[in-house]
Amino acid sequence: MRHPLDFIENIQQKPEPTRKLIATALVIFFILIIIGIWITTFSLPESSQQETPSAQPSPFTLLWNFTKESFK
């Protein structure tokens, strides 16, 4: 197996448009992986279940109230 630095040095020897294409492809690849992980871990409530309002205030409400209290 080749050393990772050899691979990077090989890419550095390529013309600039090729390097930009490789960089763009890698960025898109990693973004798609992150979005895929995010979608698979994101749980949506089932449509058959009715949402019940929680007794606790939302985190944004708590943050907003804390901020207002700090500046009094």
Largest sheet: none
Whole-number mean pLDDT: 85
Order of helices and strands: HHH
Judging from the principal axes of the Cα atoms, what is the shape? elongated
What structural class do you assign from the helix and strand content? Answer: mainly alpha
Tell me the radius of gyration.
Answer: 24 Å
Helix content: 55-70%
Strand content: under 5%
The first-to-last residue Cα distance is: 63 Å
E-strand count: 0
Low-confidence region ranges: none
Tally of helical runs: 3
Concise overview:
With 72 residues, the protein is an all-alpha fold. The chain has a domain at 1-42.
Description of the molecule:
With 72 residues, the chain is mostly helical. The protein has a domain at 1-42. Helices cover 65% and strands 0% of the residues. It has three helices and no strands. It is elongated and about 60 Å long. The chain crosses the membrane at residues 21-39. Keywords: Membrane, Transmembrane, Transmembrane helix.
Question: Which secondary structure elements does this structure contain, and how are they paired or packed?
Answer:
Elements: H1 4-12, H2 16-41, H3 59-70
Features:
mainly alpha, 65% helix, single chain, transmembrane helix, transmembrane, 3 helices, 72 residues, membrane
